[in-house]
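<discrete_fold_record>
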Amino acid sequence: MVERRYEGRVALVTGAASGIGRAVALRLAAEGAWVLGCDVDADALAETGKLIADAGGQSTMAVADVSAQADVDRIVGLLPDGRIDLLANVAGIMDFFLPVTEVDDATWERVMAVNVTGPMRLSRAVLPLMRAAGGGAIVNVSSIGGLTGAVAGTAYVTSKHALVGMTRSIAALYGADGIRANAVCPGGVATNIGRSAVPKVAWAYERLEKAFARTTRTAQPDEIATLVCWLGSDEAVNVNGAVVASDGGFTA
């Protein structure tokens, strides 16, 4: 492995304030990338920037909601000379494990906005830049919820399946431009996904718990970040349109 795979490159990482997003941002910076990180959590995002600076890396952190078009425009405007080599769509939220009969419109719309519309808008914004530069990579962090229906509520599962479909569509349509798009599907990861992971409907969660018995281990954020960073690097030049599970064998 080349330890400085991202030397001189530019990466945009969403959800960079914590969990997988922070781990991706730290690893990319350690490998030489200039990292543009964004998140809605200003304090935690600032801590990510400090961690990168303390380690000798370079980054800019921008508080932003990826589901808002104005914020997407502002973020992309911060890219140096309009250059981007890697877009890592990591930001995501849960849905309180709500089944379709119980999901409210506000939860449905917010989950789809963050988990699907945000990655779409960012991809839509950076793809022309990548095409003009002759290449680039997009790595979307989906979930085993994008491969099976038995791990979360309806909104989350739907959103993560949609993100897998978006990944494959981009790979098929833009591969000839030297652009690769791949998806990572983690299982359980030790992250602070927040209150959106608190179950609200007892009977639905009880049914989903039966599937959780297949869990062999809980991953650490950096274990997912290693895969994200590999897929975005030149070492994965022949990998395009892949949907890679990193779940300890949950979906085996």
Observations:
- The chain has a mean pLDDT of 96.
- The longest strand covers residues 179-186.
- Residues 10-245 form a domain with the Rossmann fold fold (CATH 3.40.50.720).
- The two ends are 27 Å apart (CA to CA).
